[in-house]
Amino acid sequence: MYTSVIETRRAIPCDATGIAEAHAESWKQAYSGIVPYKALSRMINRRGVSWWANAIRRSTVILVAELNNEIAGYATLGPNRVSTFPYEGEIYEIYLKPEYQGVGLGTQLFIDARQELMRRSYKGTVVWVLKDNLPALSFYENAGGKAAARGSEHFDNKRLEKIAYIWTD
User: In this structure, is the dihedral angle defined by the CA atoms of residues 33, 137, 20 and 49, taken in order, positive or negative?
Assistant: First the structure.
């Protein structure tokens, strides 16, 4: 019998390679056909191993989902970046390698990220999602998120709408 061990924990410096791989694979899968190719390539390439190692050293709050000693995904979180929202915490990113999606790891990572925000005394949570990223919209709606605001991002010459989902504690 084979037993899988799933752990969500705070990232440490030796996780940088695994996070960079999860970032590149998940962003290609999530944003190909949505974000223009050159813009997406630039965004992925600038966040390589050294970028993630520096983020970990700077104490950026990064959680990793580890399955059998492999980084399956990650979440970044901290204070809400939009001052007009009454919600104090924000999950900036949750991404899983494609082969780990749909099996509950994202839900566990989301729950653990929200718990970390609460542990840091942030009241309420915000997550921004590109409107064209239908799997992410579905994920956050199924997690009980309520659409609260709209905005946009520009990638090269393409404007993409985004939606803020909120959770109160």
Answer: positive
